[in-house]
Amino acid sequence: MNSSILNQLAAASGGAAPAWLQYLPFVAMALIFWFLILRPQMKQQKEHRSKLEAIKRGDEVLTGGGFVGKVVKVDDNYVEVELAKGMVVKAVKSTISDVIPPAGKKPAND
């Protein structure tokens, strides 16, 4: 009895759906993944790379270890950072987390 009802429902539906319709959910998930995760991450990496390329002598930087210091010398791969008066450390340029804006500028919210 059950099989006859299923056969009648299958016959009434008019056949199988197109093949491309089966792949539509996967395409939708890939697009959502791209726009919500990958694209913003790539944009953030690009901004960070541009910050690192723009580092110059006299900038205040935050290292990956949490140290804040002033840039003394910039090389292609390394940055010499003065953490305290007379204490200069050499850091790999890619470990710089952020470039701190100068204290003299007014915050954007005020």
Automatic annotation (TrEMBL):
<keyword id="KW-1133">Transmembrane helix</keyword>
<comment type="subunit">
    <text>Part of the SecDF-YidC-YajC translocase complex. The SecDF-YidC-YajC translocase forms a supercomplex with SecYEG, called the holo-translocon (HTL).</text>
</comment>
<comment type="function">
    <text>The SecYEG-SecDF-YajC-YidC holo-translocon (HTL) protein secretase/insertase is a supercomplex required for protein secretion, insertion of proteins into membranes, and assembly of membrane protein complexes. While the SecYEG complex is essential for assembly of a number of proteins and complexes, the SecDF-YajC-YidC subcomplex facilitates these functions.</text>
</comment>
<keyword id="KW-0811">Translocation</keyword>
<protein>
    <recommendedName>
        <fullName>Sec translocon accessory complex subunit YajC</fullName>
    </recommendedName>
</protein>
<keyword id="KW-0472">Membrane</keyword>
<keyword id="KW-0812">Transmembrane</keyword>
<dbReference type="InterPro" id="IPR003849">
    <property type="entry name" value="Preprotein_translocase_YajC"/>
</dbReference>
<comment type="similarity">
    <text>Belongs to the YajC family.</text>
</comment>
<keyword id="KW-0813">Transport</keyword>
<feature type="transmembrane region" description="Helical">
    <location>
        <begin position="20"/>
        <end position="38"/>
    </location>
</feature>
<keyword id="KW-0653">Protein transport</keyword>
<dbReference type="Pfam" id="PF02699">
    <property type="entry name" value="YajC"/>
</dbReference>
<keyword id="KW-1003">Cell membrane</keyword>
